[in-house]
Structure formats: C-alpha cells, structure tokens
Amino acid sequence: MKADAFKIADGVYWVGVLDWDLRDYHGYTLDGTTYNCYLVFGEEKTALIDNTYPGSSAQLWARIYDAFSKEGKEPKIDVIIQNHIENDHSGCLAEFVKKFPDLDLYCSPKAVNGLISHVPALENFDMNVVKTGDTLDIGGKTFTFLEAPMLHWPDSMFTFLAQDGILFSNDAFGQHICASERYDTDISEDFLISHAQKFYANLITPSSPLVLRKLDEVVELGLLEKIKTIAPSHGQILTEPMKLINKYKEWASGECKDKVTFLYDTMHHSTQKMAHAMMEGLISEGIQVKSYFLHTDGRSDIVTDVLDSKAIFVGSPTMMNNPYPSLGDLMYYFNALSFKKTGYQKEAVVFGSKGWGGGANRKLTADLQGAGFEVVEQYDLTYIPTEEELLKCYEIGKEIGKKLKSE
Known about the structure:
Blueprint: E1 6-9, E2 12-14, E3 17-19, E4 24-25, E5 28-29, E6 33-35, E7 38-41, E8 46-49, H1 57-71, E9 79-81, H2 87-90, H3 93-99, E10 104-107, H4 111-118, E11 127-129, E12 135-137, E13 142-147, E14 157-161, E15 166-170, H5 189-204, H6 208-220, E16 229-232, H7 241-253, E17 257-264, H8 270-284, E18 288-293, H9 299-307, E19 309-315, E20 318-319, E21 322-323, H10 326-337, E22 347-354, H11 360-370, E23 374-382, H12 387-406
Parallel strand pairs: 8-9, 9-10, 10-11, 15-16, 17-18, 17-19, 19-22, 22-23
Antiparallel strand pairs: 1-2, 2-7, 3-6, 4-5, 7-8, 12-13, 13-14, 14-15, 20-21
C-alpha cells in the first residue's frame, strides 16, 4: 500500500498506523485509535520508536519507506527503541528483526522477558537494556531514557530527544483518537481533553501516585522546561504539552469539580424515579450532574466522569436479595481502578427499590467501601415511590449538594 509519513521536526517523522475501525480496547469503547510510531534520522543511524499490532504493519512499512524517500536514503533501520512490550507497540517487531538482523534493540530492564514472551524470535537476541538517565547518540540526535514503571505496565519507559525537545511518552498523555490530523491544535481542545481524561481514567488511575512522582523526577532531571512536544503512542501529538501535563497533575492529585456522577439500573422504573428526584435536589444546589443508565451505558464512559466527580450516586433494584446484575461489572471495575489512589476519597450514595427484604443496598455499600468510596447515605423503599418518598430523594440530593459545595 501507499501511505505518507508526517514530518514533525527535522529528521523526525510520524510513521504510525491509523486504526479507524477499533471499537473496543482494554475493555472500553472508542471510535478508532492510532498506533503512533516515530522514525528519527541521525547522521550515523536511523531509529524507529515502537511499532504496531500484528497484521497492521502494511501502513507502518509504507510510511517508513515514504520517510526514507523524503530523506533521500535507502531504507535501513539501525535501532529500535521499544518503549513498551504490549502488542500494539511490539506486534510486528519480529518483522524488523528478520529484515534488519543487525539492528540494535533498546528497552527497559523489565521489558526483556516480556519481549521474549511476546516475540519468541528474540529469545537469543542481544538486547540493550537502558535505565533512567542512560543516553544514546545516533549522530546529531541524542536520546535520554527514563523508566516509567506502571505507566501503565511495569516495563514502560519514556524516551526524550534532546535536540528537538520531543518526549516520546509511550502511553502516558495518550488519547484513543483516530483523526486525519496529527497535532493537538488541529482538533477541538475540548475533544482532546475529554479523550485524554477517558484514557487516564481507564488506564492510568491506579498509578496516580506514580504519575506525581514521575513528574517530579522529570523536573529533577531538568527535562520539563526542555519539552517542546509530547509524542504519545496513541492519539494526537501535543505541541502545547503543559495543557495535558497540568491535567495529569489535577487527575493524579484528585482535584474534583462540584460534580456528581449517577449510575443506576431499574427494573420497573422505581429506582429510575428515585435517581431523577435526587438529581433535581443536586441541581438545585448548583451541582453538575452526569447520568448513566446501565441498561445501555458502558463502564469506560462512566469512570471518565467519576474521575473528576466529588461523589457518585449508585442505584439498583433488589433482585433475589442482590443488586441488579449490571452493577456487578462496574463494582469489579471500581475495585480495580482504586480511585482512592488519586488522593481524594470520593463519597457515595446508595439507593434503590426493593420488593420485600432488600439486599442490594447492603451489597453495593460493601463493594463501594471495598473500592475506597465513603458511603455517606443509603436509602431504599418498597415498590413504587410515593410523592413523599420522592421528596425525600430530592432532599437527599439537596443536602449532599450543600455538603459537597462546602468541601
């Protein structure tokens, strides 16, 4: 196939893959993504940073050949920098090793065994293991490596290109966006930030303390003021890097809006009526409300809004002494994400309709507490809510709203 490379600096090209059709990734929904790869031409060697999913390499090779053509050189990869072992970063590494058997491969210490597992052809391959502060000069282009474990896998690392001020940030600062434009400034800022927030909420949240420590380390190494561009592994290239760096600081430190996220399901609309009444109480106090109906809405969008919410309201009817089944998936996900690691303990309200003995509230309360939420209110009622009970729902929302605004 024919595909064009995109020049982002002298001798530096985006040669990634546009995946227009991907709709589910890491368990959350999206409308396509990119697997960003970067080709850097030095005076002595040419380096490729990461590669792509198995079966999607035709685009990558086409862009690589185009970049070599633009530089007036014969195609030859001398160095591969493997910032991450996951398949969307390493899936066609074997193709490059086969075509260029003398290439040098650079990775973090924790990547070695993982790369062999993902790419068995590397079992007897001599890898160059690099640690934070190590450098590589390919002739007028110097890379500095920075280990970034658990952002978001143990093997993850960043690579900084000194001469051009480009931080190849791996999955950090990424967004699952598939656009024909390459830069952040070419698309809506709100669209970019919302997708970066979704990426952070679903993939980075459990590592929030590490995000803050890594940002401090970048400052200590004197790199922050040198970063002119962030080139992540997914989404748009960031020409205004401080916008997302500051957002990461906010999300990692638990900064929240006066905002509540509702997530509920309903059997015969009683729990739904309770939710709507509680929303009105919150709205009366100027609280922003986001609502998700679990009949149709998915976990990945829910947790995106939970990330910067001070509280969540969780509603479920009781079915066979337990919450409605759709709540179970989300409770597992909350436990895995550990929002408490952002440094702010979010509050939770549990509510729902029951037929006789109940049980949903007790189970949801235990699950939410186990996931790090502080359950500040529980309310259930029998069958269909009366006007008096709906008024109580309104008052619960209003009182919680007042409390959140005072925090």
